[in-house]
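Researcher: I'd like a candidate sequence for this fold, 139 residues long. If you have to choose between options at a position, lean toward the conservative one.
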């Protein structure tokens, strides 16, 4: 089965546009376990923090309780990684390295993102860095 790390921007996009590529990826994960999600505490924290931003919240039509339950379900099906590995691959935005670190630690084949800094890396070791649309085509 495919293993993937999802960038926080993919998760946020899924909540804003459930019918878009990111939304379809999350639907296939949550309803059909179409792939194994690799998740670190650092990534989960970025998702939670992003969801508190007013510019994000105004587009998400879920009550806080429903959003919390949705995040818990995401956490429950994810393969957690400890987040001990460190790499220096994305020099333009050091904060993006956490996604590659989680993918390496969790033996993920894919990192799914819309982030231009990560996408410019293209691949690292055995990890393909792809857009949501590209990943959806593989599911």
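Model: Candidate sequence:
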């Amino acid at each position: 089965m495919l293993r993937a790390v999802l960038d926080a921007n993919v998760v946020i996009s899924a909540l804003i546009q459930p019918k878009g590529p990111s939304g379809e990826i999350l639907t296939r994960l949550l309803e059909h376990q179409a792939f194994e999600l690799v998740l670190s505490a650092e990534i989960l924290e970025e998702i939670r923090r992003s969801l508190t931003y007013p510019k994000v919240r105004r587009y998400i039509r879920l009550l806080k309780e429903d959003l919390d339950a949705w995040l818990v379900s995401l956490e429950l099906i994810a393969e957690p990684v400890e987040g001990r590995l460190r790499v220096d691959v994305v020099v333009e935005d050091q904060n993006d390295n956490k996604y590659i670190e989680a993918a390496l630690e969790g033996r993920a084949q894919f990192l799914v993102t819309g982030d231009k800094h990560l996408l410019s890396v293209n691949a690292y070791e055995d990890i393909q860095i792809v857009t949501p649309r590209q990943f959806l085509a593989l599911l």
